[in-house]
Structures are given as C-alpha cells and as structure tokens.
Structure to design on (255 residues):
C-alpha cells in the first residue's frame, strides 16, 4: 500500500486457479504460452533487517515455557488459591476430556504423515478426483492415527494405478463461465459439520474445484446447501473477473 508497509517483505505468487483460467483461455484462443523465470529475485533487494538462517545461540527447543506455573505463582502472591488440578466439575457441569479420539488405534509419527499429505495436497491441484479424500486426511495433520495413515496409503495406491491422469484443456464452442456445487448434511462423524464441494468451468474447461468442511454445524440440509451456493458464487465471480481481465488485456495487445 502506498505510504505504508514499506518495511514489509513478501513474494508475489500467482494462484493456481488463475493459472488454470489462463490455460483454458489460451487453449480456446490458440494463444502462445511462454514461461519466464526471474532467478532468485529475493536476492536483488538489500535487506536492512537481521535474518537468521539457523537457530540463534542459546535457543533450546526442548525448553518448556512454564507459563501455567508462572501464572499460579503470580496469583498466589495476590490471592489465596488452591490447585484443583485438571477441571472435572464446574458450575454443576461434569467435564470429561477425551484425549484420544480413536480408542482402538494409536498415534503415528506426524513428522512422516505431514509431508506425505502435503505432497498429496499439491498433487490435487491437477487431480480433482482425489480432492475429497485428501481433504479428509488433511484434517488430522497434528494428531494422525493409524486409520488416517491407512487412508493416505489407499490414496497413494489409487494414484499408482492411475498414472498419467490429469487435466485436459480443449477448445469449446461455449464461451461461458459455469459453476456447480453440492453439499452433504452433517456428514462428519466427528463434529457433524457438513462438507461443501464446488467446481467451475471457463469456456468448457475445469479450472477450480474444492472440497471443504463447513465452518459451522448446519441445522438443516437447506442451510448446508445455501452455504455451499454462497461460497461457489464468490468463486465464480472471482473467476469471471480474471477471465474478463485476461481477455480484455489480450484484445488491447492485438489492437
């Protein structure tokens, strides 16, 4: 922003949705596509800030901050307190905390689980057929269990048997932007949230898609559907603006 944020550093990265819109338009208009790369653009700017490329001296990863103990000590100086341990009863409510969601399973190493799911997420940018499955396994990045690992390996087996599949952009007669959406109702067995899914087409080619759990619990099937429609409407509007900008810019260049 002009006059502000001059000390902020960031890298401009094109969204993959925009890239797919461009590919669809280029296919339909027989545009020539060329790719250029600026080598290490971040090295072309002088940084005044101190940048750490490794952990600073004296930094202990295993050290615990002990904030709760500090809080207890500070409260004890001002008030007379009694440590009751973990909360069990509060204002007539019994609090039972379940630390393990899957009782018949065990935790797995998230350091192995997270990178594999991350690669699947990146691969889903060109494989819409795995979006729902990848969305499901990515919900347990911090506490993965054996069931989640098995589901992830099933996705990998499916990909191994469908090597070569991907997106296909073709020329089409219809020069329109179309959007489709759907949603289940209370489909999640963990928190009963609904899952929305949508896809959009620009001039007959698939350019955006997503499967995502809704942020709140829908009280009816109609509410879940309306939330999905509201989301895809925003996406379609954004895609339409990108399409209009690219086509108008190309027309200006040809004049």
């Amino acid at each position: 922003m002009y006059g502000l944020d001059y000390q902020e550093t960031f890298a401009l990265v094109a969204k993959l949705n925009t890239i797919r819109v461009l590919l669809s338009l280029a296919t339909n208009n027989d545009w020539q596509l060329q790719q250029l790369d600026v080598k290490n653009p971040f090295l072309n700017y002088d940084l005044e800030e101190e940048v750490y490329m490794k952990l600073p001296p004296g930094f202990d990863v295993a050290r615990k901050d002990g904030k709760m103990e500090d809080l207890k000590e500070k409260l004890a100086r001002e008030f007379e307190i009694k440590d009751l341990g973990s909360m069990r009863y509060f204002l007539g409510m019994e609090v039972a905390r379940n630390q393990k969601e899957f009782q018949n399973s065990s935790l797995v190493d998230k350091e192995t689980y997270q990178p594999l799911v991350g690669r699947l997420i990146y691969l889903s940018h060109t494989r819409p057929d795995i979006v729902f499955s990848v969305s499901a396994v990515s919900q347990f990045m911090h506490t993965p269990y054996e069931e989640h690992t098995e589901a992830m390996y099933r996705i990998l087996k499916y990909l191994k048997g469908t090597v070569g599949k991907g997106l296909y952009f073709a020329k089409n007669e219809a020069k329109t932007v179309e959007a489709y959406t759907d949603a289940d109702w209370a489909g999640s067995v963990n928190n009963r949230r609904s899952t929305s899914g949508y896809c959009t087409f620009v001039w007959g080619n698939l350019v955006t898609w997503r499967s995502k759990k809704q942020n709140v619990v829908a009280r009816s099937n109609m509410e879940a559907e309306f939330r999905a429609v509201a989301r895809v409407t925003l996406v379609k509007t954004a895609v339409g603006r990108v399409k209009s900008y690219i086509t108008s810019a190309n027309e200006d260049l040809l004049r």
Observations:
- The longest helix spans residues 221-254.
- Residues 177-254 form one domain.
